Amino acid sequence: MRKRARPAFVPGPNADVSARYAEAFLDFATTLRPSSWNAAIPVARIEGPRVDGARFCEWVSRAARATSDEDIGFRFGARVAWRAFGLLGIAAAAAPTLGEALGRVVRRQPLVDTLGTLRISHRGRLLHLQWRP
Fold first, then answer.
1. Does residue 36 carry a pLDDT above 80?
2. S-S: 82 plus which of 38, 45, 89, 133, CB 3.0-4.6 Å?
3. CA–CA separation, 86 vs 4, rounded Å?
4. What's the chain's average pLDDT?
């Protein structure tokens, strides 16, 4: 049975991501080395502290197509180093508990991106982390 393709994510008109996070994605994607990678994403030099959200999402979409991996964004998220989050990564890493680290990330998420919102909820002993566009 063939998986149904996910619809492309279209960010809001003012959405953006930090340059550090965008560079981390480009570094991650180039390690995958698909034969069509150079045609999929031209070498991009990031200028300034932020990258337009639509441009970043296009890079992710092109990388997904070039690698035939529609879950590439999730794979990047699982492997990205805390340094890609800049000051937010440092603040989270310095937190005394995991709960405090997650709280700091949720409160300061716009430092990294404004593509969506991150929420934490508790249900009994379970913690749910949810990201929504």
1. no
2. 89
3. 35
4. 83
